[in-house]
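Why show two proteins at once? Because comparison is the fastest way to build intuition. When a single record is shown, students tend to memorize it. When two are placed side by side, the eye starts asking what differs. So, the first record is below.
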Amino acid sequence: MKKSILRRCIALLIVSVMLLGLAAGCSQDSKEDGGENDDKVTTKGGKEGKEEDGDDQLVVTMLYSDNASYQYKEDWLILEEIEKRTGVKLELIPVPESDWATKRTTIINSGDMPDIISKTLSHEVSDYATSGLFLPISDYLDSMPNLSAFIEEFGYEDDLDLAREADGKFYILPVNCKESRMNNMSWMIRQDLLDKHDLEMPKTLDDVLNVARVFKEAYPDVYPITNRFQWGNMTTTIARGFGIPGGWQLPGHGFYYDQDSDDFVFIPGTEEYKAFLEYMNTLYSEGLLDPEYLTLDSNVYEQRIANSQNLILCDWVGNDIRYNRDGQSIDSEFNIVAMVPPTGPNGDYAIGNTALYSQGWAIPASTAEREDFSEILEFFDWFYTEEAAVLTTFGVEGITYKVENDTLQWIDKEANKTADYGIFNNCLTPRFHRDYLYADWADNSIEVYKEMKEKDVVPPLVPSVKLTADQKEFESMYVTALADYQWTMAAKFVDGSESFDNWDAFVDECEKKGAAELRELYNEVWQEQKN
């Protein structure tokens, strides 16, 4: 009884901070008692949630990051087909993408998690791994033959090794898996405006700056460059042009492996990081970067693109089809295209490095204690089959795709397939089908991707240090204050509220807040780890 009461309290807490859709996903209301939660209601999956109607069907629940561009629908084709083909009902608990990180942490810390935490990378479960909160996926590969075969066939061993913790295990299922290394988060630009103003396609970051200046002069009310997903998105991309990680790829503590020196370097204290922030400051101070670049939600962001208020962006290649559809309904000349990432001062491409996969599913360790655990593993393993890759990427033949010349093609290439059907959905596609690039992208984007592949534009991931529980405890004495300070100051350098004349003072303060202690820790661990 205490357990069910605790669950109801947690459910009420979640209701108080999440949208109605989240609450609907987390609970099953009793129709007979005016909507109060029954004692059996839980965020857990499995048979327990179905006892009230006598249905013993396996139910698996997922904490789902709900994108404003393709909001969750209960009747999505993808959910119906997963249930039809596996016999398992996948129930989504939608959380608005804008609140994802905060609410995911709240639910993880509550201890009462759904069966799958979607859109979660290895470093985001790292702090919990040693506490036994998440399932060590690597322990169960023998029970997941499809995943094991996929890992071997497409060479995932090295990338998953980088996700291992100090205990030698990895704690996520790889999601958005591809058969070759690529990063389709890249640059887009208005080709029609380049043509109108007789401008060449930018090849360097300086070119991007100069094109943006021309656009600003021609359209003073426009902010040429835009960004969504807050600090992490654009800064991940631009920082790489300066030869350093940034944004999502720079851990909060700021340390990153440097191959030349074979040690871990505090990136925010480097001259390259300063040059990167100076570039961002130039964009901001000249009105070339949307001043809301840290706060734009997806709806506003896409509206501004369609209305020609923003002209250069870093986004998922493939979205250009939708943006052109929406933009051309307003301006028939509207034409946004993908571009090969520009290079920085030393020839580094401004695009984030990447693993063969781009997201992960984290599974609560308590799942292993369930009677239906073997069925759940079988369900997870199914997602790495060819059948699942076709379904989650393309949907159903005759409804969403057709087969021509032995390749899968969209029946309606411009349809909003994710919003309408739930397919080609980041959180629901553990394995992308190999045909998705050529089926989904515009001809220009395909050519850009081919050029990027030929030039080996996208770098692989680099090693990280794997800390024990004691080492994590030592790390925690410094990392929060250091992270908060260096992120806050980075934003201030960009918006000009902090002068670059104070750069040395900033670096010194980082050292005082723990950079010195963490440098010693990480490099000692690295020397032990690599030997």
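Second record. Ask yourself what differs from the first in the token line.
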Amino acid sequence: LFHLLTQINMSLFLIFSVLSVLSFSVLILKIVFPPWNFPKNIPTIPFYIVFLPSILKIDQIELYETYIKDPLEKYGAVKIFFGSRWNILVSRPEFLTQIFRDENTFAKSGNQKKIPSSVLAAYTGDNIISAHGEVWRTYRGIMTTPLQQFDDKPFENNAKLFCSLIRREVSSMSLGNKMADVVMPPLIQKLTLDNISQVLLGFDFNTLTQDSVPLHQKLTEIKKQIFHPLFLTFPFLDSLPIPQRQQSFKEVEKFRSILVNKVQDELVKNYQFEQTKFASSELIKAYNNNEIDYKQLSDNIVILLVAGHENPQLLLTTLLYLLAKHPDTWQRKVYDEIKDIQDYNDLSNLVTLNSFIFEAIRFYPPLNTIINRCTTKKCRLGNNITIPKNAYVGYNNYYATHDERFWGYTANVFDPKRWGNNMDMIMKTWRHHKTNSSMSSFHGGKRACLGEKMALVEMRVTIWELLKMFKITLSPNWKEKFTPAGPLCPVNLMLNFEDRVEDEFDSIPSIIVGNN
């Protein structure tokens, strides 16, 4: 009997070992090679390319120029590995136009469907950006008006507070005649958090006026967990019993609960939601009318916070970088145009300011690589790229906004003059490039970003206040580098600020003193 049991155990061990090897082999094959039914007439980007920024410390622009640009330019689409699966990444504006127009075939499929067991999906849930069909139409009906018609006055006040924080930073760090290096991401995040909370959520984060805000601290902590490079690349790991990730799930749920309770405390308990037109107020009304459930209410409040502060943070970082990179040309031109403006409502009519913002969005699209659509049936992209059902399709905005067929031989030159010399021409050019998807930073079709108007107002007002007070230059201690993947902006941007002497742009630098 003992001999028989020993043989059985050995057999079971061998079977288990063979199955483990087979499972591991299948997993490796799925990572190394794209699915057999993916189109054969477009190239495959080697699977390891996605890991190079972590290994070689290169940014996504270097990665794109070296490994992705040529095949994308030649074929208009490639097969690429990301997020534990193979995807089809397209770049040609005409392909993007097809995707944007055919919403039923190239259906939005956000993290809640793409990687449902991930911490990221638990954070963002099912929301107006990622939902599809009737659910999306319900969300859109609730939130379109408050996203288009909003009180923009907080942008002006918060921009002034933002300048005060910069002044305080400079004052605290300046030694003798040395310029202070101001690390911008934490300050910009404070600004965009207060903007979105006051304009859309109906409460104030208070990050611009208080040094320590528990909700802000909690957000900073969970973002480090959510956007951990390993788990973003292999989100299936979140389904394993890893203590670190199990704790991350708990922290995300705790933050979501705190955020929604904060909105409720401000708007529900005193019935403010009935008198106000915040996006959060409209969501609460829809919840009370049984149009959405509590999870949908929470998911959309969270996405308002996430997209409403992170995307403007990316864009503002890029704008400040470009202003600082061209201090005696474009920064001077923008300053000369805005310095005598008394009312921020007049900023939308300024040729140089708006051309500069549009060109920054074109040159460095804040959301560069986006993979959030899934085919609902077998279909054809363009004339000869056949895509199977249930294939994830994404797009590369950087290529589309640098395509020489649409932007000319100066596509890779930063040149705000390309937009026109009057506002009618500038807006016509803007709309034209959005229509043909060569300006895809705000997406397109029915799913075009509802926050575009708000983001542009926020950028104009912040630049207006900032340049009236400071001349900005890049810190000589900052190494020029951009984010490694996905969102696109300078990494850990450091700037120097000088008090601006009115009507003397090239004045002798002065060290800032004083506090708030």
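One difference worth noting in the second protein: The mean pLDDT is 88.
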